[in-house]
């Protein structure tokens, strides 16, 4: 399997799940991400072997059910009076989904903008009882009054969930703790790298260390990504260290996938990145980059180029 790929689903259609993530449930990979075709916003695909992908559903569209649960939230999805540069309606970017064991709901957070500009900088929330079902849209808002652009979600070992997003025109990166139902912001726990212009955050945990990957801000063009680490989410973050080459192998981080080989027990972390095609019609030719992360120690992380990835990890991932 090639490290740079643009797969097609079981209908022969290009797999559009940009800026997204891959979740593993009951031995199945679920790929969730942006799909700006027609009236679609977020789509879900599934696979048993990472090679053959089956289309599941357009899980968020301009026609999704809307629930006015929060009176202070902007509930616009379809904005017919404005034309988007890509697709139709509002811009929904970098959707991420987590599961809440107490409410038994899948919760999606994403970046929301008007079709014609990126001035409002809001986050959006949607929920569903199944990972690949029809999500109910709960609206968009500015978390605690701050701008919110590129974003991600992270659930800690104690099931406390966090929302990480770029604020202040991408100059700051905020980490927020979510409420117990994962539907609202409880508090802002810290601001990272003030004034350093970071986006595309990805957080994961390994051996008691939290890792946060980010990219620089260069529009559709790739740049040098970096990572930092900490023993605590709310303080003690290291300086940023370079990850990959000067263009992160022509990609921007979007997710980390953790696999476990059921034959050897070996655990592997994989970098998933977007190789953006560009604005307009070129967006639909955006590819994906998948590479193994290499740890020489708990705080020394590397991303190295390889033309092929080891497919057996995905066949025998365990859980």
UniProtKB/TrEMBL annotation:
SUPFAM superfamilies, per database record: Arabinanase/levansucrase/invertase (SSF75005)
Species whose genome carries this gene: Blautia hansenii (Ruminococcus hansenii)
Keywords carried by this UniProt record: Glycosidase, Hydrolase
UniProt name for this protein: Family 43 glycosylhydrolase
Pfam family, one: Glyco_hydro_43
Highest taxon above the source species: Bacteria
Family classification: Belongs to the glycosyl hydrolase 43 family.
Classification via InterPro entries: Glyco_hydro_43 (IPR006710), Glyco_hydro_beta-prop_sf (IPR023296)
